[in-house]
Amino acid sequence: MIDLHGYTALVTGASRGIGRACAIRLAEAGADVVVNYVSSRSNAEETAEQIQALGRKALVVKADVSEEDDVRSLMEIIEEELGSLDVVVSNAATGGFKQLLEASPKAFDNAMRINVRSLLHLVQAGMHLLERPGGKGIAPRSKVIALSSAGSKFALPKYGLIGSSKAALESLVRHLTLELGPRGVNLNVVLSGLVDTDSARLLPNAERLLEGRRARSLTGEKLLAPSDVADTVMFLASARSDQIQGATLTVDGGSSIRV
C-alpha cells in the first residue's frame, strides 16, 4: 500500500478531469493537497470537498501557472499555510483543437506558455521547498510529475498545438532532471493515451478515436479513465518510485504498441 501521510502535494488544473482524479487519489493515499485552478472556483471547491471528506487538508488557490508572479505567490501561500511541499503534479494545459495552418502566433505562444513554461515556473519558484539537503522534509526525495499525452509522439487531427507543446514538455523534464536530480528531486512524465473525459469528447471524430483506442487495447475493452492516470501519478509521488528518474511512463493499455 502506498502511504503519503504527512506529504503535501500541489496539483495544477485540479478542478476537473485528470487533475481532479490525481488530487483525490493523492488524498486517498494520505496527502494534504493544494487544489490549483484558474477559472472555475466552484469546481475546485468540489475537488477540495472530496479531499476533506477523506480527512485530509485541502487548500484551494487560484493562480495562472503560466505567469511567473502568480506561481511565486502560489508558493508563498503554500509555505505560509502548509509549511512544506513534497509533490508537484503539473497538469494544467491548454491549446484547443485547430489546424496548425490556422493557428495564430498568440495561440502557439499560449500553448507553449501554459503547457511547457508553467513547469519551469513551478520548479524555479518552489525549489526551496522541493530541495532535500540533509534529508529535509518527510519525503526523502520530492517528486515532480508532468502530464503528457499521445500527441507528443503521434500526429492527431487538429492536435498540433497541444502535441508539439507536450513533446517540448517531455524534453524539458529530461533536462531539468540533470539539474534537480542531484538536489533530491525526481522528475518524471506520465503520458496518457486517449482518456474518456469531457475534453476528449471535444476532439474531432472523438467517438471514432475512442472506439479505435478500445479496439487496440491489450488490457480489455474498458476505456481509459482519469483514475487510471491518477494511479500512476500516485505511484510516482511515493518513495516506491525513488529510482525512477527522468522517465516517461505510458498509460494507454498497450494501445500504442501496435497499428
TrEMBL record:
Broad EC category: oxidoreductase
Pfam families in the cross-refs: adh_short_C2
Single GO term (MF): enoyl-[acyl-carrier-protein] reductase (NADPH) activity
InterPro entries: NAD(P)-bd_dom_sf, SDR_fam
EC number: 1.3.1.104
Record keywords: Oxidoreductase
Keyword match Thylakoid: no
SUPFAM superfamilies to which the protein is assigned, alphabetical: NAD(P)-binding Rossmann-fold domains
Family statement: Belongs to the short-chain dehydrogenases/reductases (SDR) family.
This protein's name: Enoyl-[acyl-carrier-protein] reductase [NADPH] FabL
